[in-house]
Amino acid sequence: MATRTLAHWAVSLNDIPCSTRSAAVKSLYNYIGCAIGGSNHPTTKKARDALSPFFGKPTSTLLGAQSPCFSKADPQHAALLNGIASHVHDYDDTHLATIIHPAGPIASALLAWAECQGGVSGQAMIVALVIGIETSCKLGRAIWPHHYDIGWHITSTTGAIGAAVAVGKLMELDDEQMMHAIGLASVQVVGLREMFGSDTKSFHPGRAASSGLLAALLAQKGYTSSEKALEAKRGWANVVAGGGVPRLDDLLASLGQTWEVEANSFKPFPCGIVCHPAIDAAVQCHHELRSKSPALPLENIEAVELRVHPLVVELTSKENPQDGLESKFSVFHGCAVGLLSGKAGPAQYADDVVTSREVIAMREKVKIISDDSLLADEVHLSLRHQRGMVIEKHVAHAIGSAHVPMTGQQLTDKFVDQTSLVLGADGAKAASDAAWTIAEVDSVETVFPMFRGRPRGTAR
Amino acid sequence: MATRTLAHWAVSLNDIPCSTRSAAVKSLYNYIGCAIGGSNHPTTKKARDALSPFFGKPTSTLLGAQSPCFSKADPQHAALLNGIASHVHDYDDTHLATIIHPAGPIASALLAWAECQGGVSGQAMIVALVIGIETSCKLGRAIWPHHYDIGWHITSTTGAIGAAVAVGKLMELDDEQMMHAIGLASVQVVGLREMFGSDTKSFHPGRAASSGLLAALLAQKGYTSSEKALEAKRGWANVVAGGGVPRLDDLLASLGQTWEVEANSFKPFPCGIVCHPAIDAAVQCHHELRSKSPALPLENIEAVELRVHPLVVELTSKENPQDGLESKFSVFHGCAVGLLSGKAGPAQYADDVVTSREVIAMREKVKIISDDSLLADEVHLSLRHQRGMVIEKHVAHAIGSAHVPMTGQQLTDKFVDQTSLVLGADGAKAASDAAWTIAEVDSVETVFPMFRGRPRGTAR
What we know:
Chains A, B: Belongs to the PrpD family. Chains A, B: InterPro entries: MmgE/PrpD_sf (IPR036148), MmgE/PrpD_sf_1 (IPR042183), MmgE/PrpD_sf_2 (IPR042188), MmgE_PrpD (IPR005656), MmgE_PrpD_C (IPR045337), MmgE_PrpD_N (IPR045336). The structure is a homodimer. Helices cover about 50% and strands about 10% of the residues of chain A. With about 450 residues, chain A is of the alpha+beta class. The first copy, chain A, folds into 2 domains: about 1-265, 2-methylcitrate dehydratase PrpD (Orthogonal Bundle); about 275-395, CATH 3.30.1330.120. Chain A has a 4-stranded mixed sheet with strand order 7-6-8-9. In chain A, strands 1-2 form a two-stranded antiparallel ribbon. A two-stranded antiparallel ribbon of chain A has the order 3-5. In chain A, α2 packs across α19 and α9 (about 175-185) packs antiparallel against α10 (about 200-220). Chains A and B meet through α3, α9, β4, α10 and α11 of A and α3, α9, β4, α10 and α11 of B.
C-alpha cells in the first residue's frame, strides 16, 4: 500500500501548518540563492554548453543566466541545469537525519514546470514543495543508512521521486496518475557517491529533477507503471535498500504527523559540513580581533590551534589544496579565510584565493588536534597574535546546525553574498527581495525576471 | 582499471571480424523493424503526446512516424521514443546468457545521434553498435545473475552505459572523455522488473538510450566523473550487483576475444521467450495441415496437447487473456493463433484478435502438461482434427534459439510483417531494403526517410 498511501496523501493535502510553510519558504529562498550563485560555475557552464543546442521551446528560466540568448530553456533542461547549479558549490541545504539536500531536485523541477505552465500561485508552489520534500525525506529515512552506506547518493535517488510528486501536485494529478508518476520516477535511480569530487556530483540532483519532471509528464498522459512500485518484492525500496530492511510503512505513516522540511538546515559555508564549527569559530575570532583593534594586521596572527571532532581530521585534513574544489576538503583553508576576511563564501573558495600567498601563509599556521570527546558540531579554537593577544573560542554548536539555525538575516546575507558575484550588488538585492516574496505572489512567473542577469548594455 | 580498460578498448577499436559485423547488421536490421513496428502502439503514442511539446530542433527521425508534424525530434527525445517503440511489442532481440535485449538502448541513441550529426558512415555506425553491445553484455555478464534476481531490468541498467560508449565512439571521444562518459552513464541506473506488464517496461530501454546519449554529450564538453566509476568500492558494479561479487576484470579481459553480439538472438514471436517452442510447433502444424489439405477447416481441430518445460506453465498459463498485453503471457493464445493463421506476429496479438470468438474457441482446445525432462526451447505437440487427422510434432529447439537462429529471410519476413501495419506493404518493403543496406552507405541519414510514414495525401 505504500505507493498508494503516498499518492493519496500527496493528492489530498492542501493545508499545511504555519511553521511548515515558513520552513518551506526558507528552503526555497536558500535554493534560489544557491542556484543563482552556482550558475556561472565551470561545471554548470560545461553542462549548459553541451546541452543548449538541444533546448526546446524556452519557457523556463535558467537561474542566474547571463547570456540573453540562453536565459531560458525547455522545462526538462532548465530542471537539469538549475539542479546542477544549486548543488555545485556544496552550499545548499541539509536534512540532517539523512544528509539529503532536499530542495535541489524538487525545487528545480517545480520552478521549471511552474514557469512553463503559467498562473501557478506562490501558495500552490509552497505546498507542492513541501509535498516533494516530505516524500524525499520520508523515503530517505526508510532506507537509511544502508542505502547511503553501499554507495548511493541519497539526495538524488530519493529526489527524483520527490520531484515527480511535487510536479504531479502542481499538475493536479489524481491518485492513479500520481501512483504511476511515483513508479516512473522510482525506476530512474540516479547518483553514486563515487562521483564526489567530480562534476558528476552536482549532475545528480539535476538529473533527479529532470527525471522526476519526466515521470510526471508521462503519468499525466496516462502512461502506466506499477501500483506497488515502492513496496513490491522487486520494487524500489527493496532493490535500493542495500541489504537493509526498508521501513516504508512506518515512515509513510508519519506523513503529515512530523514535517521533515522543518528539520531542513542551511549551510553557512560552501564546503563539507564537518568543517563548519572551525570556520564558525574563525569568523568569530576575526570579528573579535577587529572590534578590539580595528587596525590590527591579521596576517601577524602567529598560531592557531583547533581541537576538532575526529571526522574533521578524517575528511578534511588537506593541508595544501590546489584549487577551489580541493579547498572544500581543507579545514585549514576554511579557518584561514575565516580569520582573514571574516567570511567563507564562494568568493573565499575561488581558485585565486586558494593559491594566494596570504591565504597559504595563514593555512600553514593552523594546527588541528583530534578530540573524540567533542560533538560533530563542536570546536575549540585558540589563537595567538604577534602582539601578545590570545583568544580562546569554544563553539558548542556550529552555526547552521540544528541547535543554531541560520536566521533570516543570515540567509539573506548568504543569498546576497553569493548572488552578487553573478547579478551584481543591486541585482542581488532585487533577487533576494523577490525570492523572499515568492510564496505570496499570484503567479510565480512574474518574479523570474529578477533571477536572471540583465541583457548586455543595460545599466546595472 | 575496469573503467579505463573499457574506455581504451572502445576508443581504439576500429576493425571487427566479418562474422561480428554480420551479426551487428542483423541486430540493427531487427531493431529498426521493431522500432517502426512499435511506433503506433498506444504506449509509444502516450509518450509522444506527453513529450512533443518539449521537443528541441527536429534533427532525428522518430522511426515509423506517421504525422508529418512530428516525424523528427531532438536526439534525446528521439532516442527515448525509439527505445520505447523498439521494446513495446516484446519482439526485439535477446542475448541469451544475460537476457539483455541489447540493441534497443544502444541503437536508439546511436541512430538519433548519427542523423543529428550527419555524415556518419554505415561502417562507423556498425562499429559503434558493436562496441555498445559488447559493453552492455560484458557488464551484464559481470553482474549476472544477482543483479537481475534482486529486481533490476538488466537491459536498461547496462544499456545506458552501452549507449554512452557507442555514441562516444561516433563522437571520437578520447580515453579520458570516454571514461567520464562511462561514469556519467553509470550513475543513471534505470529499470526495475516490478514494471513488467506496464507501459514503464518499455520506458526502460528508451530512458537508457537518452541517458547514455546525455552522458556522452556532457563528457564531450569536458564534464568529469570518476576514473573508477565501474570498479570503485562504491562504484557501479558493487552498488548494483545485488549481493553478488561482480566479475568485471574477467569479463572486460574478454573484450575483443569473444563477441557477445554474435550470440544475440531475435524473437520470432512478440511474447515471452518461453512460449516460443509451442508457437513454433503450432505454426509448423498449420502449414502441414494446409499442405495436406488446403481447404481443411482449421476451426474443426478437436484437441491440442502441449508437453512443455515447467517454466511455460509457471509464466504463461493465462487461459483467458483479455487484451493484447495479457495475451503475451498466454501460451494458449500463441498456440491458437499459430494454428489458425500460421503466424504469430503483432497482428495476432492485437486486442480484437485476442477477443475474437474463433481464437477464444481454439484457445479452449489447448491443454498443457508440464514435463521437466524437456529443455527450455523444446516442445511436444499432438493435435487431433475432426476428420481423423492426427499430427505429432517435436520441436527440439525452437526457432530463434541459439541452435536454430532466424535466417535472413525469416528476419525480413518479420520486418515486413510488422512494419506493413505502420508503413503499408510498399513502404515496408522499401524500409526493409534500406535497413539491410544501412551498413554500406556513406552517410546514414540518407536512408532515414524510408523509415518514416509518408505525409498525408501522398500515394502509397
